[in-house]
Amino acid sequence: MVEQTFGSVKKVAFTWLSAAGGAADKVTDNTYNGEILRAVFIPDGGGTQPSDLYDVALNDDDGVDVLGREAGDLSNAATEQLRNMGAVANSKLTLAVTNGGNAKGGLVIVYIR
Fold first, then answer.
1. Is the pLDDT of residue 73 over 90?
2. Distance CA 95, CA 16 (A)
3. Which of 86, 23, 24, 38 is nearest to 60 (CA)?
4. Which residue, 61, 91, 95, 109, has fewest beta-carbon neighbours within 10 Å?
5. pLDDT at 70 over 90
6. CATH number for the domain including 97?
7. Which among 11, 17, 3, 20 is positioned nearest to 106, based on CA atoms?
């Protein structure tokens, strides 16, 4: 995971690899405040390409998906993005991937201002 700040925008990049059940979880080291401007979902290719229609949630410390439950049924072949979702207040973020397939992966990049 890479957590960077560029001016007033924070960029959090989660590289994920699912377990046998098709799930992956990662938690940020830092806490965040602000509006979720954009989330980008980039599936791996080749042997680690996730199952089609995999799902992603980004939960705050209250267990609320700050992506507004809009990152479901994602393509395993194309990069997708969401814009202007929710907000986070003094919270770590937990990436939760489901239905990814066994030992499959990708990258989720979140921009926060």
1. yes
2. 9
3. 86
4. 61
5. yes
6. 2.60.120.380
7. 17
Does residue 1 have a pLDDT over 90? no
Report the distance separating Cα 6 and Cα 25, nearest Å.
Answer: 25
Beta strands in 18-79 (DSSP E): 24-27, 32-43, 55-59
- Contacts of 59 by beta carbon, 8 Å cutoff, 6+ apart: 65, 66, 93, 94, 96
The two three-digit tokens of residue 26, written as one number: 């990662």
The contacts found for 68-74 with CB under 8 angstroms, 24 or more apart, are 71/39, 71/41, 74/41, 74/43
| Cα distance between residue 9 and residue 49, in whole Å | 30
- Evaluate if pTM is beyond 0.85: yes
Domain of residue 18, residue span: 2-112
Number of structural domains the chain divides into: 1
